[in-house]
Structure formats: structure tokens, C-alpha cells
């Protein structure tokens, strides 16, 4: 603050020259290096002001602040393109999922450019780098014993010949009775739902009645990580960088005990699972999408690990 007051008093001539941008922006020894991301916008529609205000604009403001401080700053983002919402919208528009993603990725990029959002790179998750990094993380988890296999009861539409992922089924909420609840969540009461819990379920594609069928899936064995996670949280909470809301939600999860989390889906639109017996499945988007931050950086520079595996800088 004192330095800012001094420069203000001495006028614009006292302002240090801004850093000349390098391409690519990489961490520099001995400097403050800042990597900024904002939540990857989902690609099945046109972004609106709420999307921009909710995450993109705040990250852009911070990126501009960092650059004015002459900190070495990289700001990346991109469209989140896998998952059932894309498949659903593609069916509605008569397009393939890839065609739909290509269309809306261009729309998103144009909107953010119009708002002059200062991304250093705006990428997407449907890339070879995403497949490579996601599958590598999966193989590491598998080798270290952090995955398990279990049977899930899922709704299958015999008319369509496919298992129905959560967004492909609608029915009556078992908690509040809302008649248009999705297979993952009720938009009225907000409760999370397992699709097989829905009353009067219907296939969104043909409006037929699906049947409950068992299918094998892979799970992230979160209970194995619980002790290590709690120790890490205690250290980071002590640093004071967590909001009260984030602490409360995390404590609630730990209080109830972590449960194994399914990371695969019976779909075709997604990152393929590289394991015999599961090659007809893809990774669940909540496993896959956060890896997009890494793969988008990797598409920006082949030295991406200097940003993501470099805590000393």
C-alpha cells in the first residue's frame, strides 16, 4: 500500500514498465508465478451473463491485477465437453456430440473474446492430451490399489438397447414427489438421486419404461484416502485460505465418512476406459472434467508439468 501511495504521488512516470508477455508463459525461477483457472463452462448451450459473472469475470479481474503487479501470470480456461448433457443436447439438435461441441466451443470462444476476457489460452476437453493424461492418472490409481470393482443397479431401456445415464431418465422424485426429477438430482428439492430410486421412470429418448439391470463399474476407493486427506486438510485449513462454506461442506463429507465413488459410465461419449472388461465404458465426467485443467495447459505448452507439478515455484 505504501508503494502504491508513493507511485500515485509521483505520477505515471514512476510506474514500473509492464512485463513483456512471453509465449508460452512458463514459471520463472525467483519470480512470483501465478496459474489462474476458472470453472470450465459446459458446452451444450450459449453462455449467459450468469456464467461469466459466476466464475470467468472474477478470474479475469484477478489475472489483470496479477499482470499489473508484474507477476508472471498464466490464465487458462476451456469448454467442458464430455458427459450425458452433451449427448442429450446433440440428440435434440440432430447432431453428433462432436459436431455439437465444435459448434458451441466456437460460440463460447467468440463470446469471451467479445467481452475481452484475457485468457492466455482457451481450450477444450475433447483432445488427445485429455485422453492421454486422464488414462495415465487412471493407470496410476489402478497400480496403487485406489480403485475397486463393484456391481451397480442401473436403468436400461430395452427399446433403445442402452443403459440410461442419469440425464437420460426422468421420473417422480422419491423425496418430494416432483414429477420431472432427473436421474441424478431433483431440481425442486435439490436432493441427489440414484436413478433407480425414481418413481415411474421414463426413458427421455423413447418415453419407454426402463428396467433395473446390474452392470459392472469401477470406483475410486475414497475411504482408503480418508486419513491422508484429513491430515492434509488440517494443514491447509491452518493457512486460512478456505472459505467458511467450503470448510463446512468438507467437514460434513468427512463426518459422514467418505464412500467409494463410481468413475465409469455406460456411454460412448467420453474418455475411453483403458482396461479389459470395461472398454465399452467411458470415464464419468466428474472424474474426467477436472483433468481438463491439466490437458488444456498441456495443449498450450508441452512443458505443462512445470505449472502443475512444480510446488517450489
Key traits:
single chain; 313 residues; 4-stranded antiparallel β-sheet; 3-stranded parallel β-sheet; 10 helices; 18% strand; globular
Over all CA atoms, what is the radius of gyration?
Answer: 23 Å
Which stretches are low in confidence, meaning pLDDT under 50 for 5 or more residues running?
none
Secondary-structure-based class equals: alpha+beta
Shape: globular
Describe the strand arrangement of the main beta sheet, using strand numbers. Answer: 5-4-9-10
Q: Under the CATH scheme, which architecture of the domain at 20-140 and 285-309 would be assigned?
A: 3-Layer(aba) Sandwich
Q: What share of the residues lie within helices?
A: 25-40%
- What is the string of SSEs from the N terminus onward? HEHEHHEHEEEEEEHHEEEHHH
Alpha plus pi helix count: 10
Keywords: Aminoacyl-tRNA synthetase, ATP-binding, Ligase, Nucleotide-binding, Protein biosynthesis
Pfam family, one: tRNA-synt_1g
Domain Methionyl/Leucyl tRNA synthetase: 34-311
Catalytic activity: tRNA(Met) + L-methionine + ATP = L-methionyl-tRNA(Met) + AMP + diphosphate
